[in-house]
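S.,

As promised, the adenosine-5'-triphosphate run. Input:
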Amino acid sequence: MNIETVKEQLKNVNYAGLDRDIVSLGLIKDIKIEGETLFLELISNNESVFGSIEEQIRMLFKDDFKKIEVTFLASKQTSTNYGSTQAPNNRAPYAKHIIAITSGKGGVGKSTVSVNLAVSLAQMGFSVGLLDADVYGPNIPRMLGITQEKLQWGEDDKMIPSENYGIKVMSVGLTTPRSDTPLVWRSSVAVSALIQFLEDVNWGELDFLVIDMPPGTGDIQLTMAQELPITSSIIVTTPQQVSCDDVSRAIMMFRDIKVPIGGIVENMSTFIAPDTKKEYAIFGNGGAQNLCDTYDIKLLGKIPLTMDIRETSDAGRPAVATDDAIQKGYYREITKNLLLEMGLL
Ligand SMILES: Nc1ncnc2c1ncn2[C@@H]1O[C@H](COP(=O)(O)OP(=O)(O)OP(=O)(O)O)[C@@H](O)[C@H]1O
Ligand SMILES: [Mg+2]
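Predicted complex:
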């Protein structure tokens, strides 16, 4: 077996999580054969795939070489040069404005707000990209009706974002073989995947890059603040005290790391009964307004809990893309208020 045939064989080694082989991804740095030993040098920072790649290589050449030595070298591109929150990098120079949708808390409606804000901006004529930064719970593909889509690569070796409702979308959900494939990644791996989504996706020129953040105040939030000059962030909360407590922590974190806060959205403000249209304040009143008063932040809008929003969202149709003027109105109002706050309207 010579170097050429080894290289040919390596095309059978898959990179876990992506439907690509290690040769086409350009990971092979060096192949050497000395007597009955095969030496391979590969470039990757993603520790989580080392085991699977090495195992596949050993299986592949077990009958051809007595000894196989695989070395992983870090690529310079992502291992160095991380930014800081004081002087963030700009890994998305193609985007004029970067909007992060966050909350200290899970399940309060961040993804629903992100999707509707992004589609609403596109309906106003802006070019918009939506990045699903919720690596462990990527819900954006379902909410945009693109769960069946698979990651595509362009000729320039860049990923091609999916498109629907006039926006470009990238999500880890598009890279896994099935929507129920769990991702067991250390946070350093999740962070490098997101950096790749910023740098190696063909987003084109964007007026807005909207980022749907995962719940909490952890590594991913911090990385985004270090790697991107976030123009404005929207904080989503529900009215009850426990949600407002978590959101207070998120506000303090954002202030610490100098991410501008564009405003708060109160989601699930009241419940509107589908039959009687009667309104119930099941989570209490005034939670978000109190936060806005305490921290001197603008209330961008309130959205009630309605069956329609949940149904259209699960069905992959954002509220702003339906004919329902009332549901659309909530999100359009928030979009308008954000643009006003940013001085763009
Ligand atoms: N105003 C609303 N009325 C009815 N259902 C809603 C509303 N807002 C969100 N939902 C539903 O609540 C669920 C949670 O919303 P969503 O996924 O947007 O929250 P999240 O904050 O992104 O959650 P996570 O923290 O898990 O990412 C979804 O099923 C969504 O359809
Ligand atoms: Mg979400």
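The mean pLDDT is 90. The longest strand covers residues 261-272.

- D.
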